[in-house]
Design a protein that fits this description.
The complex is a heterodimer of chains A (112) and B (114). Chain A has 112 residues and is an all-beta fold. Chain A is built from no helices and 11 strands. In chain A, strands 2, 4, 5, 9, 10 and 11 form a 6-stranded mixed β-sheet that branches. In chain A, strands 1-3-8-7-6 form a 5-stranded antiparallel β-sheet, with no helix packed on it. Classes of the chains: A mainly beta (112), B mainly beta (114). At the A-B interface, strand 4, strand 5, strand 9 and strand 10 of A face strand 4, strand 5 and strand 10 of B.
């Protein structure tokens, strides 16, 4: 069935370092890959997304890469700040259904 | 502008009772989604509405769960005869267009079944 694996489950970095979170999806028909940030007690907030016709997308300190052949996509955060601390979720979806399949989440801790 | 709103924010109920959870999507958004998030887990898809129709309700866990959407706007998720395993955060999202569009999430309803 449809599945998204996300690693690592927890990640601790020093302020200013980079953080990388990786996801693998199972359904080769997936063509939409959003990343969400969730702070305690709040709903997930979209931070960046990528579609299958693009290999990389960047927005300031955040970048996402997609390898459709390997069915991998990754989130890269550079120059991390304490306010980046949160749970990050990757997801995979298709343009012909509304369903997003989410990874299990990565708890990122940025130490000052 | 206003985001997705959900009510109540918290709900405590006794096992066997029925509960109704409400979602108000962003104005103008035609698609609406319900997800469930158990403690420390990822989000689990429940149902997707396009307008008032539900083209995909494959994620509803059992026939105790139902959802409706009226007027292409507000949606209600109903859980009948609640069980302790129903305890979770129920999240609603909406998108401007249909499938494949960016989904914007509400703050969720935290349901606790005693």
């Amino acid at each position: 069935g449809e599945n998204v694996e996300q690693h690592p489950s927890t990640l601790s970095v020093q302020e200013g370092d980079s953080a990388v979170i990786k996801c693998t999806y199972s359904d080769s028909a997936s063509n939409y890959f959003p990343w969400y940030k969730q702070e305690l007690g709040k709903g997930p907030q979209l931070i960046i997304d990528i579609r299958s016709n693009v290999g990389e997308k960047k927005d300031q300190r955040i970048a996402v890469t997609l390898n459709k052949t390997a069915k991998h996509f990754s989130l890269h955060i550079t120059e991390t700040q304490p306010e980046d601390s949160a749970v990050y979720f990757c997801a995979a979806g298709m343009s012909n259904t509304g369903k997003l399949i989410f990874g299990q989440g990565t708890t990122l801790q940025v130490k000052p | 502008g206003a985001g997705v709103s959900q009510s109540p924010s918290n709900k405590v109920t006794e096992k066997g009772k029925d509960v109704e959870l409400r979602c108000d999507p962003i104005s103008g958004h035609t698609a609406l989604y319900w997800y469930r998030q158990s403690l420390g887990q990822g989000l689990e898809f429940l149902i997707y509405f396009q307008g008032n129709s539900a083209p995909d309700k494959s994620g509803l866990p059992s026939d105790r769960f139902s959802a409706e959407r009226t007027g292409g706007s507000v949606s209600t998720l109903t859980i009948q005869r609640t069980q302790q395993e129903d305890s979770a955060v129920y999240l609603c999202a909406s998108s401007f267009g249909g499938a494949g569009e960016t989904q914007y999430f509400g703050p969720g309803t935290r349901l606790l079944v005693l």
